[in-house]
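FAQ

Q: What does a record look like?
A: Structure on top, sequence underneath. For example:
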């Protein structure tokens, strides 16, 4: 006769990611972060146009709920992150949350824009320098969103690229040079926008040169997702946000 065993159900903590169809970086950087902390991570791709413009970004709202619904409901997902800074800016943070929670009621939702606001509050950032890869109308919308939230933008610059695949090819050295120029101005911190922009890997170098916090999209959303899950873990190479931004 076969033996019968008692069992204990343990779902643990898991993270969910909604990743842009064109994104080449978010799964790698956040997968490394979450898996390094012993967390499970599930992701699904959302259809999007290769051009990053307000009219193309707004189209993601049509498939947001359907995309979120493909994340496993019984996996113990604590937080779902929508991985698009410009998309959250154009769609609106509240709308993103509503669309995702339609598929996953009660699950915490964030995005890089909301995460940036939380990071600035935690670090006491009163003015921010901004590096953007976007065309002018998308960069302008992001500047307005931050300033309307009470985070003045001291100065900003952009690579002025509409194609997401081109953004993924911008070298970390180009991003570093831009961040050092903007960050040298009168600001408390500098932020590089876009989950597809290679910026996290040069955060600690930029902070060492500037002597102030340096932030980027994948870094802030990863930090915020951990915070929302109740995890305040320092992360080597995570920048000052992970070292000191744990108590805000």
């Amino acid at each position: 006769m076969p033996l019968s065993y008692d069992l204990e159900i343990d779902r643990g903590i898991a993270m969910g990611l909604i990743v842009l169809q064109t994104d080449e970086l978010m799964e790698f950087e956040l997968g490394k972060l979450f898996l390094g902390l012993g967390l499970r991570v599930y992701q699904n791709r959302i259809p999007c146009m290769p051009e990053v413009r307000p009219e193309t970004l707004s189209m993601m709202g049509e498939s947001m709920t359907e995309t979120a619904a493909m994340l496993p409901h019984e996996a113990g997902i604590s937080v779902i992150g929508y991985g698009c800074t410009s998309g959250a800016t154009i769609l609106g943070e509240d709308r993103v949350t509503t669309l995702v929670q339609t598929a996953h009621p009660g699950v915490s939702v964030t995005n890089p824009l909301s995460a940036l606001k939380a990071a600035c509050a935690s670090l006491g950032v009163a003015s921010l320098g901004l590096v953007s890869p976007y065309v002018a109308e998308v960069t302008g919308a992001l500047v307005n969103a931050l300033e309307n939230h009470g985070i003045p933008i001291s100065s900003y610059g952009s690579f002025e690229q509409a194609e997401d695949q081109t953004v993924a090819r911008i070298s970390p050295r180009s991003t570093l040079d831009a961040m050092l120029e903007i960050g040298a101005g009168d600001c408390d911190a500098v932020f590089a926008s876009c989950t597809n922009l290679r910026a996290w890997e040069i955060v600690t170098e930029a902070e060492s040169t500037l002597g102030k916090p340096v932030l980027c999209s994948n870094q802030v959303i990863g930090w915020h997702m951990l915070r929302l899950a109740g995890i305040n873990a320092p992360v080597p190479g995570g920048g000052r946000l992970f070292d000191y931004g744990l108590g805000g």
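Q: Is there anything notable about this one?
A: The mean pLDDT is 94.
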